[in-house]
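Subgroup meeting minutes
Present: P.N., E.W., G.H.
Scribe: E.W.

1. P.N. recapped why we're keeping a running log of single-chain structure predictions: easier to compare across weeks, and new members can see raw inputs and outputs side by side.
2. G.H. added today's entry (337 aa).
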Amino acid sequence: MKYLQAQKAIVDLIAQDDLEAGSRLPSEGDLAKYCGVSGITIRRALQELGSLGVIERIQGKGTFVKRPPADGTALGSVAMVVTGRDPQLYEGMFGSIQRALGSRGFTARFVVANEPTSTIARDLAHVSGVLISGQVTEAWGHFLQSLALPFVVIGSCETDMPVWRVDCDWTGATRTIVHALNRRGCRRIGFINGAKRYPPALSAFDGFRQAMEELALPIEDECITWCQRGEYDGKLDAFFASLATPLDGIVVEQGIFPTLLSWFYDHGFPRPCPLLGIATSRQPYEGVRRRIVHVHFDHDLTQRGVERLFEIMGNHREPPRTEWLSSTLHPKRTSQR
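Output recorded in log:
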């Protein structure tokens, strides 16, 4: 990872000093001090820049600018592969990844595909690494390993093979929410969850079930609903109509939360109004936090995925593993209401 930072620093130096083709760069030792890295690292950075055609190293004379980088000159590219799901769901992720890669001097190349093919292999032939999200199957894992490219799975994964992966701990976050609602006096707690086939929703339900069992609270079928995208309103109508006894707390999947608030405004807030619990990878809902127990993940999932990819691009020896993002409860005090 340090050699990538050194590459970016050298490109920035060329741009800032407006160095033209043929301009001589400082010595390796001076560049190492400027970039704050070792001699070995600076030599690797210069070698990579040479292969990109940015600099030229002439034995006995020094290092010279070969092609002055214009603003936004890329040191390489990283592919973002979305597989098996509606790419519109990932629009926010695309923008975040573009910004994260741009700050490191890399460009993003977006690929949408259901299955790995020879065409996809050709598309990935010249990238430095791969980020992949969606329905990441065993076939995708073997395919990416066969290309000998560093890759990181962002989010859920449908393979047991060892891969680098960054994901939110939805189980732990939802468990925290249920305990927090209970500390504020909630005894009858419901769950408005996402689609049954959506891995984060399944993980969140595991956390809900664990917490309810730990607190010796009943898990009632009428208090739980699973909502497919596009059917939220109808599911909410049926859910609230079926409740024989009002809920005093509801855990809500993050994608459904805005629709739930709209539903409340359209149909009137239940009386008494239940406390809501939400786990989200987005920023806390400051304006409505008084009636909300909110768990927010401590790192942005896509940003952390990019960081992890650059770490393994600089060190392929570390064995692959899953990194679970931790979360923080807001408000931190959840006393009896």
